[in-house]
Protein: Glutamate-binding protein
Amino acid sequence: MRITRLAAVFGAMTMALTVAACGGDDSGSSGGSGSGASGIVGKAEKDKKLTIGVKADQPGLGLQTGSTYTGFDIEIGKLIAKGLGVEESGITWKTTVSANREPYIQQGQVDIVVATYTINDERKQKVNFGGPYYIAGQDLLVPTASTITGPDALAGKKVCSVSGSTPAKRIQTDYKSAQLQQFDSYSKCVTALAGGQVDAVTTDDIILAGYAAQEQYAGKFKVVGKPFSTEPYGIGLKKDDTAGCNKINDILKAAAADGSYKKAWDDTLGKSGKAAADLDVSKLTNCS
Ligand code: GLU
Structure:
């Protein structure tokens, strides 16, 4: 039942990796300048350790249970660490929320961020991005009986999202007649939806599908299934760490070729029955 429902939710989505995220320069060698000793390549070599910023409350993507983190982003983080020569025991997972990802990278509280993190020009002013390793799209989660069919039906409705996220910003700029309520994490929005305090939750389809499939919400919610943005997920790191960024893209290329990207999917989000998206390595960032 649970698997079938999640598969149905996924089935309604279009997530083809067809959109060029940021230029698609395919030069991607692990050379490059600008990292110096402070870059992730040097740090990983020297310390054999890496601190990775991830989400803690997004089922299927980044979920903390006790001291364990699971999900697709976690598996991608492990792949990157391994490619940098860092064993799983050398990884420190650090919980991030949407709004503190750039500051955590800038202040060195994390080495990289793998946290449903959309690559965009505004964020690229502050941080660099490897990837994209997945393309999501903004969607809506609503009660099963809701008549909301898309973002144009949000006028006068209470819609919940997360501060510092691209979906919250899009509601503010493109759907001004909606009443936006912001929390620091999506699970708080989902609790508000379950309690009837808001009419909809908006963020990436893949995140919403994870909440809809949770046992405690069985039969309560539906994902509308008409994505209205493109959210290419990147791996954030320090802005000047060009060599680190190129290395991340090289690791992703290798993971696409040797099946480990597909395995990361199959072990997590793929359990819903949805096939892994193709990692289109021609669309990786140029790291500049
Ligand atoms: N991908 C979007 C973003 O980076 C929404 C998901 C999130 O907030 O993590 O803002």
